[in-house]
Amino acid sequence: MRFFAFLGLMLQAALSLGAEPNVLLQSWKDAARQCEVPVKIYLPADTSGPAPVILFSHGLGASREMYGYLGTYWAEKGFVAVHLTHVGSDDSVWRNATDSRVDAMMAAASAANYVARLGDIAFVIDELTRQNAEKSSRLFGRLNLEQIGMAGHSFGALTAQAEAGQSILVAGVERVFRDPRIKAVVAMSPAPPPKSNLPAAAFARMAAPIFYLTGTADFEMITMAGVKQRREPFDKGGGSDQYLAIFAGGDHGLFVGRRRGGARKSDAAAWAYIQKATTEFFNAYLRNDPASLVWMREKAAGEMGAIGKLESKKSS
Q1: CB neighbour class for 242 (10 Å; exposed up to 12, middle 13-18, buried from 19)
Q2: What is the pLDDT of residue 195?
Q3: Is the pTM of this model over 0.85?
Q4: Window from 53-62, 100-109, 247-256, 275-284 with minimum mean pLDDT
Q5: N or C: which end of the chain has fewer CB within 10 A?
Q6: Contacts of 99 (CB under 8 A, 6+ apart)
Q7: What is the 3-state secondary structure of the chain?
């Protein structure tokens, strides 16, 4: 089944990682919520000044060890990439399942875990702020906290969408969890908010620029969402500059950056484009780089070539 192949991919990615330079592995205790938030921080080699920060929120059943092709690349381009593990919707869900892994994953895709993920993000920004000012921390003075972006995949994309301003339903009540400290968002395999009958209203108040990425075969069995649903946030959203990249033949596992049994022929070009395009996006909207903004608006679509298409719209 595709679902278990995807889980196997995640396990392989976790086990195959070795020691990496300029990487910090830490676990931070949120005393207010009585929980741990493990992080993997990719640091740029250049220490001459504070760097912009990109938070990364993994998909359901994944962890901070996934998506390293992005963290490594962003660090090479001068960003501090902070990959979180969201305990409760991470790989422990399927690793520790005593019966059906599918049922365990379904249960973990809950509103409570959705809200917990948003709490993780707020706590991590607070902790980064504290460590940036703490002389004993390896992060001391290395973070530009006026330039924080966020990216996520699948459940992580929903997390990122909420941080950009998308409302969600919690116990039947529409709530907005927008964190204004996050200035730009990348959402890979986006989706409508769970169990919402007001998607247009949910997407109407996006306050941060957002870059959606999906594929024509981007389907998974937890939400049963396909490309039609995944483009809904872009089609119905407003309030900020928005972009949508659709990869020809791209499936849900494309964005992880690793394949069980080896990469597909089309993967290398797609991964290279994802690295470059997300970096240009964060350069444009975090660093306010005019050349990167021109690239996003005028060149990004053409550079996709045969691997897909890119659409865009400016804030209304």
Answers
A1: buried
A2: 58
A3: yes
A4: 100-109
A5: N
A6: none
A7: CHHHHHHHHHHHHHHHCCCCCCEEEEEEEECCCCEEEEEEEECCCCCCCCEEEEEEECCCCECCCCCHHHHHHHHHCCCEEEEECCCCCECHHHHCCCCCHHHHHHHHCCHHHHHHHHHHHHHHHHHHHHHHCCCCCCCCCCEEEEEEEEEEECHHHHHHHHHHCCCEEECCEEECCCCCCEEEEEEECCCCCCCCCCHHHHHCCCCCCEEEEEEEECCCCCCCCCHHHHCHHHHHCCCCCEEEEEEEEEEHHHHHCCCCCCCCCCHHHHHHHHHHHHHHHHHHHCCCCHHHHHHHHHHHHHHHHHHEEEEEECCC
- pLDDT for the residue 196: 55
pLDDT at 10 over 80: no
Asked whether the predicted pLDDT for residue 289 surpasses 70, the reply is: yes
- Burial code of 119-154, b = ≥16 C-beta within 10 A, e = fewer? bbbbbbbebbeebbeeeebebeebbbeebbbbbbbb
Task: Give the whole-angstrom CA distance, residue 3 versus residue 300.
Answer: 32
- In angstroms, the Cα distances linking 270 to 254, 265, 266, 305 are 8, 10, 7, 11
Average pLDDT, the chain: 88
Q: Which of 93 and 301 is assigned the larger pLDDT?
A: 301
